[in-house]
Structure formats: C-alpha cells, structure tokens
Amino acid sequence: MEASHNKGGFIENFFNLKKHNTTVRAEAIGGITTFLTMAYILFVNPSILGDAGMDKGALFTVTCVAALIGTLLAAFWARVPFAMAPGMGLNAFFTYALVIGRGLPWETALGIVFVSGVTFIILTVLGVREKIVNAIPLSLRLATSAGIGLFITFIGFKGMGLVVSNPATLVSLGHLSTPTIIALLGLVFIVVLETMKVRGGILIGIIVMTVVGMIAGEVALPESIISVPPSIAPIAFKLDIMSALDLAFIAPIFSFMFVDLFDSVGTIVACSYEAKMVDKKGNIPKIGKILEADSVATVIGSLLGTSTTTTYIESASGISQGARTGLASVFTAALFAIALLFSPIVTIVPAFATAPALVMVGIYMFKNIKEIKFDDLVEGAPAFLTIILMPLTYSISNGLTFGFLSYLIIAICSGQVNRISKVMWVIGLLSAINLYISAIS
User: What is the rounded average pLDDT of the residues 358-375?
Assistant: First the structure.
C-alpha cells in the first residue's frame, strides 16, 4: 500500500482515503478490476432483453447509462466500492417469464419494474427491507439463487443450440452446428480462465468466441469500432405504469422484489465483509444508504428502459485488489461512460457468444446449494421445489410460490408451526394469491 495520501484535497475529504487506509492508485486499480469482471453485462443484457422485442442498440446505451448512474449513486451517496448494473436473473425473469412466458408487452414489464423499485424505496426508508429477508429461512434464500442459476443456465444452453424443444420429450440435444461447437469450446475456455483467476475471464471469452465466429463466417465484421452511442429513444420512457398496477401483476412485482431483495442484500453483506465495512457486532453501518442507492437505481433504470438494476457481486473482485471507498466506483463508472463509444463492437456479438456467459453465471449462482440442509425436510423439500420448478415451469415466480407455500404446509403438518415467522405468514398469503392468479390466467 502506498504511504502517500491525497491530504487535504476534495477526494481525501469526501472519500476519507486515509481513514480507510487506501490511496487514489489503489482505488483506481480496484475500480478498473470491478469493471473488467462485470463488463460482460454490456453484451449479455441487450441480448436477453432484445429477446423481449426491445431495440438492441438502445439497450446497449441504456445498459451503460444505468450502470453508470447506479455505480455513481454507490460512489457519492453510499460512498462504497460497489458497482451496479441491470441484474442477471432479473433480466431473464423480465424477458422469459413476463414478456415471453405471460405474453406481456415489454412496456408493461418495465412498468412492473418501476413499481417494484418504488416499493423498494418505501420499504428501505421504513427499514422493512432487511426484516423481510431475515424472516425467510436461509434454505429458501439459498434455493432462490440456485434456482435462478439453473434457470439462466437452461436459457444459456438454448442460446448455444445445445438444448432444443422436442414434442415427445419436451427437450432434447440439439444439432452440433458450428455456432454450438464454438459456444461449447468457449464455455470450457471461460471456465479455465475463471479457474486461473484471470480478471475479466467471462468478457475475454465473449470476445474470443465472437472473433472465432468471424473467422468461421458466422459473424459479420463491424463497419467501425467507435461511434456515437445508439439513441435510447426506442425504449426510454416507454414504460406502462398504469397497466402494471393491475392486480393481476401483484405476483410479478412480488417476485421482482424478493429476487432483488436476496440478490442485493446477499451481495452487500458479502462485499461489506470483504471491504471490512462491518462493525464488531456484525452490523453494516452503511447498508441503509446502499439499499437506497440500489432502489433509486432500479427506478431510474426502468424509466430509461431496462430491467432491475442491482448491486453486483463482481464488486468483490475490485475490493480484493484494494478498493475501499466510493472513489473506486467513480473509476468503474467512468469506464462504463467510455464503453458507450464502442457500440459497433457490442451489436455484432452473437447469441452463441453470450450464451456461455449465462452458463458461467449460473454456475456461480448455484454453488451455494451445498449450504442447504436437505436432511431437514421442512426446509430441504421446499428448497428443492424452489430450485427445480424455476427452470421446469420457466418461471422464477412459480418457483418462489411453490417454495414458500410448501414450507408453510410442511411446517404446519409436521407440527413445527413455531418455525414460521409472522412475516412468512404474510409471504405465504401473497404466494397463495400468486398461485390463484396464475391458475386462472
């Protein structure tokens, strides 16, 4: 660590570099590292939301801007070394569960994201957000992450052409075409890079697969490398809030809330421990402001035209390189701003190059399944149902619904009602409403 600090200047006073035993150089390295490990979202988010019928060029610009704004909120409002961007899993829920699965216009789906974001702000200000998460059994929280991981892995395999529909068996192995072979080799390449702790392994893998696709004649060369960012007009401020307020959409709003609750709080806790931002009692003094920034970023993102914006676990990579304050997030945000100029490269990236990234993210989301106590069936059985029903019903919402309801029913029938918190009773009621609405719609 460098001995010199920027004493007396604005940066030192605002970010308290000396107090956090860090320097501008250390923060810069940390911020750049975070960007490299999460930059894959610039390719993947437009690919996923593009399947919902949204303009991919506009999505690239909005993804950059949403990440820029969210990360700056983390930098200047919460003053933490965290980065934000449209969340993986949440974007899949937006496209494949709401727009494709339920046939909703993407404008209405954006309205649902907006309503969930406003609800988040209210819950955060009232201090309810953390209480909701703590009221849900750890096994179901872990199962939610694992189930989403399995769900987006399934989507990734479809994008690779490895898994295709079959009228007799529902799914089967696809034809090993050139794009599928490139994707499979790319997946192995990404796993090896991640195993070797190479920074930006997923991003490197996407770039390499795109180049190989060009050589194989599967991808067209870009007409230029740098250009003015595509206009956001096709998707910005197109959200339909009034339609989203329909009672039939309580369940999707509910699902967005819970998925983001688990995702953001889990990420914040993990990164806070890594950055030594936890006090002796295990509390995170800044968690209120971090959650506020997360909530506001979601609302702004929905107005611009993207799914829920959330805190990224990849922030831990920058923290591991020395990031300790919001200054690191300023550097990360600056790189998202620079990335706006490289839209020609992003728009040529094919689905078979981004699909392996989904599988890799799915692996990371699934890894904590080992923490679930499956020998305790009161929690193990609902956790299993949550995990398996997300991909099999092609719905995160359905997985959560059956998980919550089965937990309540099994606990009641086995005489262990004392395990159910008051908040879980309310969650169970909302889950029952969700199931009824899904059944009659």
Answer: 86
* Overall average pLDDT of the 265-280 stretch: 73
Task: Indicate the burial class of 67 (C-beta count within 10 angstroms; 0-12, 13-18, 19 or more).
Answer: buried
Contact 208, 189 (CB under 8 A): yes
Q: Which residue intervals of 87-223 are DSSP H helices?
A: 90-92, 106-125, 128-135, 138-160, 178-195, 201-215
Place of tokens 């107090």: 19
Summarised one tens digit per residue, pLDDT across range 310-319 is 888 788 778 8
Q: What is the DSSP letter of 84?
A: E
Res. 383 pLDDT band, cuts 50 70 90: very high
Contacts of residue 150, defined as CB under 8 A and 6 or more positions apart, other chains included, come to 362, 366, 387, 388, 390, 391
Whether the pLDDT of residue 411 is over 90: the answer is yes
Residue 166 sits at φ, ψ, to 5 deg, of -145, 125
CA-based torsion, 365, 370, 373, 374: positive or negative = positive
Dist. CA 294–CA 291, nearest whole Å: 5
Global pTM?
Answer: 0.76
Residue 419 Cα to chain centre, angstroms: 30
Encoded tokens for 35: 């960007």
Q: Which residue, among 37, 261, 20, 5, has the nearest Cα to 129 in the 3D structure?
A: 261
Q: Is 427 helix (H, G, I), strand (E, B) or coil?
A: helix
What helix, strand, coil percent values describe the chain, rounded to 5? Answer: 70, 5, 30
Residue 355, CB-side half-sphere exposure with 13 Å CA sphere: 22
- In angstroms, the CA 304 to CA 62 distance is 6
Instruction: Quote the CA–CA distance of 334 and 183 in Å, as a whole number.
Output: 31
